Amino acid sequence: MSHDEAFFEDLVEDSAMALPLALALSTHRVLKLVYKSVEWRTGSSSQGILGARAYIRGGLLSLAAFGWNGPQEEEAAAGGGTLLGKLTLVGWIKVKGVFSESFGMRMRGSGSWLALLALLVLSSSSSRLVRADVDDDDASYSSWLDEMDKTSSSEDKQPGKYNTNHDGPPADKTERQNLEVTGGVDAGAAAASAIKTIVVAKDGSGHFTTVQAAVNSIPKSNKQRIIISIKAGIYREKVKVDKPWVTFQGAGPRLTEIQWGDMASTKGPDGNELKTFGSASVAVNGDHFTARDISFRNTAPPPPGGAVGRQAVALRISGDFGAFFNVNFYGAQDTLYDHKGRHYFYRCYIEGSIDFIFGNGRSFYMQCRLHSIANPSGSLTAQKRATTTEETGFSFVKCVVTGSGSIYLGRAWGPASRVVFSLTYFDNIILPQGWFDWADPNRQKTVFYGEYKCFGPGANRDKRVSWSRLLTPKQAKPFLHTGFINGELWLTST
């Protein structure tokens, strides 16, 4: 992929993410808008239009109707005149998959990307602009609409009722009185205002040619924000960040990538196995770490069923107050080790097969795509909270779960494991029971596994385990904002 193509691809995604059209454009208007765009690119034949439908349905159509955040809650419940009344968004979003895999392979010129971008911008404009439609009696449009309905519609059953007879903390505390920040909040403000930039470039045009060399140049007692600007390229190196206030700034998640291929069974310099903790391609131990517009990958192949020692971490975050914006994480078993501390993930892509988000962090995932490559089965999370008094846990809000295989939403790695999904789309890869107790029935009494207003073919709770919870608005509220991680006190200084 050329730099220009990647630029337009990112531009399209950024426009799509910002679409405000969760306000109810009618089915009629949205479908006609998409139809006319496809007709323009494929010719007027209904055959060409129907063929192109497969490339745009999952991403463009759904984004145009709902935006990145999904349907508005009340409209979603009622169906109304919006697209939700007709379609249940099989393949809703799959944004990066549809855009980069489908479009990326077929749209190789900047003109095509600009055309798609123009459609997205048009879609996000006022309803008056969108009303310039084709004739209602257009036969090709009717045929295309019929095909859309046949291939995309289904009905979701009502979720089961919440069972109040199980233990678990209400998660209504933010632990503000126990906030621990190295140097205090004032030091955080000072660090945010004192910024230094170090450039890493493989071609030698920067200060360093490797990321680790740039990190090594920072003093351990660092108290200012250091931005390591990493130019486009694949950096094959194992990186350890043991300094505070470091930012990795990439050129884009498709352009800048750090990768390595260690597994838990890989022997270290001392001849001993690295174990899962030591397998990370990038290990972050410093507080106030930030990453933007970059990818982290563990290149170890996906493990076969029953394999031992094949855990392979792309990134481990062990520092407090870590934030990730538009970052991609690639791996299979144990992709993202959310080890400990408070962390924020925004518009990230996280891919894996078994327990691919795991650890005992206290983390908030907002508008992320969580993509399974399980074959045949796996699990999304493995949270390790030990007791019901711990404030750790994972909260996922307005995310999208897609991919292959059949997966659990979570496995109870810790006796009091805590994970909540809110306003999140589940594709049909979610196992009906939803959650697994790690083969320890005692954990059913102490885990806190919640779902709140999730939707999609995998959100049906009819067969969910009885010890998972369908949360009320009051119960879900503490998990719906960055107060869960005390974000109001530190995110502004990232």
From TrEMBL:
GO BP annotation list: cell wall modification; pectin catabolic process
Residue ranges of domain Pectinesterase catalytic in the record: 198-487
Tell me any Pfam family this protein matches: Pectinesterase
Report what the protein is called. Pectinesterase
On the tree of life, the source organism's domain of life is Eukaryota
Q: What is its EC number?
A: 3.1.1.11
Per the similarity annotation, which family is this?
A: Belongs to the pectinesterase family.
Cite the annotated pathway. Answer: Glycan metabolism; pectin degradation; 2-dehydro-3-deoxy-D-gluconate from pectin: step 1/5
Which portions of the chain have biased composition (kind: Basic and acidic residues)? 147-159
Q: Where in the cell is it found?
A: Cell envelope; Secreted
Give positions of region: Disordered. Answer: 145-175
Q: According to its record, what are the GO cellular component terms?
A: extracellular region
Cross-referenced InterPro entries, in alphabetical order? Answer: Pectin_lyas_fold, Pectin_lyase_fold/virulence, Pectinesterase_Asp_AS, Pectinesterase_cat
Q: Which GO terms describe its molecular function?
A: pectinesterase activity
Specify whether Hydrolase is a keyword of the entry. Answer: yes
